[in-house]
Amino acid sequence: MFADVILPLALPKLYTYLIPDGMEVEPGMRVVVQFGKRRKYAAIIKRIHHQPPTAYVVKPILAKLDEYPVVWPHQLQFWEWVAHYYACTEGEVMNMAMPAHLKLSSETIIQLDPAYADETHLATIASQLSDEAYLVVEALAVKQELTLAEVQQLLGESTATSAQAIVKSLIDQHICVAYESIRESYRPKLETYILLAPAYADEHALHRLFDQLEKAPKQLQLLMKFYELRQKQGWVKKKDLLEQTEASHAQLKALVDKGIFQEIKQTVDRMAFRYEGPIRQLHLTKTQQTCVQQIKEWMNEKHVVLLHGVTSSGKTVVYVSLIQDVLARGEQVLYLLPEIALTAQMIRRLQQYLGHQVGVYHSRLSPNERVEMWNKVREGNLQVIVGSRSALWLPFCKLSLIIVDEEHDASFKQQDPAPRYHARDAAIYYAHLLNARVVLGSATPAVESYHQAMQGKYGYVMLKERYGQIALPDMILADMRTIPRQHRGERHITPLLEDYIRRTIQQQKQVILFQNRRGYAPSQICQVCGWVPHCEQCDVALTYHKAVHQLICHYCGRKYPPVTQCQACGSHAIINKSFGTERIEDELHVLFPKACIARMDLDTMRRKDSYHQLITQFEQRRIDILVGTQMVVKGLDFESVGLVGILLADSLLNYPDFRVNERAFQLMEQVSGRAGRKGEKGIVVIQAYQLHHPVLAHVMAHDYVAFFQMEIEARNHFQYPPFSRLVKITLKHRQQEKVTEAAYQLAGELSDKLSAHITGPATPLVSRVRNEYLQEMLIRLPRSAQALQEQKDKLVLLCNQVLQHPDFRSVRIIVDVDPMY
Fold first, then answer.
1. Mean pLDDT confidence for 742-764
2. pLDDT of amino acid 635
3. Mean pLDDT score of the chain, rounded to an integer?
4. How many whole angstroms separate alpha carbon 131 and alpha carbon 135?
5. Do 385 and 335 form a contact (C-beta atoms < 8 A)?
6. What's the gap between Cα 511 and its chain centre?
7. What is the pTM of this model?
């Protein structure tokens, strides 16, 4: 018997291994295999058959890691489709899909040769070795074995010779030996609990014990606190007992040594989703009841239903009603959100109706937490999962419904690394595979999704009114030219918006201000000659961050000291140009010194619990003004927001991309939807220079349909999606001439052999990132599924042929199907 396995490598084909006699395996299990001369990997079995490979000598499977499949057969089918559609390999999909601690690969372990195991022999070779090599040998004498990573850490980054070179020299001299070891990375969490020894179970023995401990007050306190905690909690954690008594480990150990207490270790759940509050009853308005009924009717005919509900129309309670029906059947639900920031608030809202059946999964979880969530979902112990796009890869066993909230959001598209999938589109295929249903929800649907609904391919349900019949917010345009001339360049809040902020705070309401750039100043410029500081590794202007007093490249992350003198003309007239969220925060502190102001962007949200803390503070009205990037746009629900300000609409409208109007409309309409969600009608102030832009007119009227008509006509005229499929090809190399030559070579091959419209090659706006020069091409392909796949297969083949040319082997070619940028 033979097994085709998926290795966590970018291999174009599956590799076949021999199943040893007596080894029982099935698809979805992990097995240890050797690939190459020495390297070992944990691979996933995809299929079992009787056909040996003819092109190479088959190797046996070395070991079986699981007694049951960790991946279901329908997942393997899904992985194959993702790899095929998004022009990547199944190994790359496996790398993306599985938690890191389930993907095992061997590491090189270094040991001393037995001949040098004692100090006498080590002393004889000391003079023959370099300082670095002898340091490694000394460490091995103490620790017995080291990994290559530990050797590198021991030597430090400043060492001129690499760890690999030093280890190789020791092996060549027969001082060290090396072998490959594969180890499980996942470790269950162990908690130490305290038990009372059985000898003190009866009341008389216990009274005698209290009498004995009268002269040891700290030990007596430990015993009394133990009883108190046991009555409250049942089980007593060692950590809780020590914290609440402020006792030392030695004092507790004394009771253990006397045989009064016993310590036991138990495996505990890292991801226990407990909800202690009351379960709320779901109350739907008549409009929402009608909406739920219409969705259910559409689900009998279509796999996908688009729920188009205005902001604050109560889409979440509609979702909850649908989820409750699924849970009543004992099935599972996946609730996808575009941002990790939304999961904390959404978990709390769903738990109020569904209790502890709700779990969360996203990239901010630790590797061990992700493994535990993976196993819970696979075993069916969690019925509702709320998560970002990575939650789509979980091993659902009874998935019946997928909800994609804010389905228009570009964050559902993976950028790097491969697979560059769109979670919304992949979810639709996955649901079709499982005969499940998909609900797409948005106040501003993607043009492609709305078009599919209007063509009858999706069901369509509209929620036209806000919950509680609250009116949509009043929209006000503020001309940026009204900022007094003497304050231009220093002030970025118009007098009109300043006045509205002041009135809103006086009314005990909250304010959200939106600016889609982080940092203090997106660029600096010399007033004399126009020189702009750029990153040395990327062709992009550096952003000044005042909090750390550094210039930072937002593409590679490299940091530079602030510039005080122009490197071109020597002038000291360096000024900050434009503004980011950090600068607005500073300006607000000057204008409203008594207000509590917070910022929500990538710089302030780096910690795991940052989102939860900030959102909780804003919900509790401990923050008056929240300024942020598009993180504040995406579906957050706050009761007391009376005013929303969009600080520079022009920055959203002037970008060279065919989706610029769509993205600008969605962002402005979504951020305006944060105002006036409960109680009084809200106000939205949009600051701009181009007051007569057609997109602004549609935003002011909250008219999505009119916007769609304008946009779809332009898309049809230029044959952009949804009337075609796009594939973006990006070529990267450290030499500009080589990447340009490769791009033109590939463009020529594509023009000759591909029946498609090709734009480019061209140099993108940011032409160099991390010292790699870029060239891009955009290819328009037909929408027909069969023709599309044929053209993509040809495209991948031609890319590989170009890479086989001796001059272009070091060029990287990235194929992005259905690009968003």
1. 91
2. 58
3. 89
4. 6
5. yes
6. 28
7. 0.86
| Positions of E strands within 197-347 | 236-237, 261-268, 304-309, 332-336
Between the alpha carbon of residue 35 and those of residues 14, 47, 104, 327, the distances in Å are 12, 18, 13, 44
Q: How far apart are CA 275 and CA 277, in angstroms?
A: 6
83-88 own/partner pairs: CB under 8 Å, 24+ apart: 83/419, 84/789, 85/429, 85/789, 85/792, 85/817, 86/418, 86/419, 86/420, 86/421, 86/817, 87/727, 87/792, 87/795, 87/796, 87/815, 87/817, 88/10, 88/418, 88/419, 88/420, 88/815
Place of tokens 């190994």: 91
- Which letter does DSSP use for residue 163 in this model? H
Question: What 8-state DSSP symbol labels residue 426?
Answer: H
pLDDT digits (tens, 9 = 90+) for 218-257: 888 888 888 888 887 778 889 888 888 888 888 888 888 8
User: DSSP state, 511?
Assistant: E
Bridge-based pairing state of the strands 574-577 and 772-781: unpaired
Sheet (strand 550-552) strand order: 543-545, 550-552, 559-560
**SS3 at position 3:** strand
User: In 7-129, where do the E strands start and end?
Assistant: 15-18, 30-34, 40-49, 59-60, 63-64, 107-112
Of 578, 537, 581, 582, the closest CA to residue 560 belongs to: 537
Dihedral (Cα; 340, 343, 345, 348), 10-degree rounding? -150
CA dihedral 722, 426, 13, 99 (to 10 degrees): 140
The token pair that represents 301 in the structure block: 């005919």
Q: Of 657, 680, 805, 783, which Cα lies nearest the Cα of 731?
A: 805
Across-strand partners of 625? 511, 597
Q: Which amino acid is at 335?
A: Y
CA-only gyration radius of the chain, Å: 31
Q: Which of 155-169, 279-293, 365-379, 722-736 has the least mean pLDDT? A: 155-169
Specify whether the CB–CB gap between 310 and 392 falls below 8 A. Answer: no
Beta-carbon-side half-sphere exposure of residue 798 (alpha carbons within 13 Å): 21
Range 157-163, long-range pairs (CB < 8 A, 24+ positions): 159/132, 161/130, 161/132
Measure the CA–CA gap between 414 and 421, rounded to whole angstroms.
5
Q: Where is 760: in which H helix or E strand?
A: strand 757-762
CA distances from 673 to 98, 115, 471, 635, 667 (A): 36, 74, 11, 9, 10
Taking only the tens place, the pLDDT of each residue in 698-728 is 999 999 999 999 999 999 999 999 999 999 9
- Return the pLDDT at 21: 92
Interval 542-596: pLDDT, tens? 999 988 899 999 999 999 999 989 999 999 999 888 889 999 999 999 999 999 9
Name the nearest CA neighbour of 99 among 470, 474, 399, 368.
368
Closest CA to 795 of 750, 761, 757, 760: 750
Per the CB < 8 A criterion, the answer to whether 93 and 62 are in contact is no
Residue 712 identity (one-letter amino acid): I
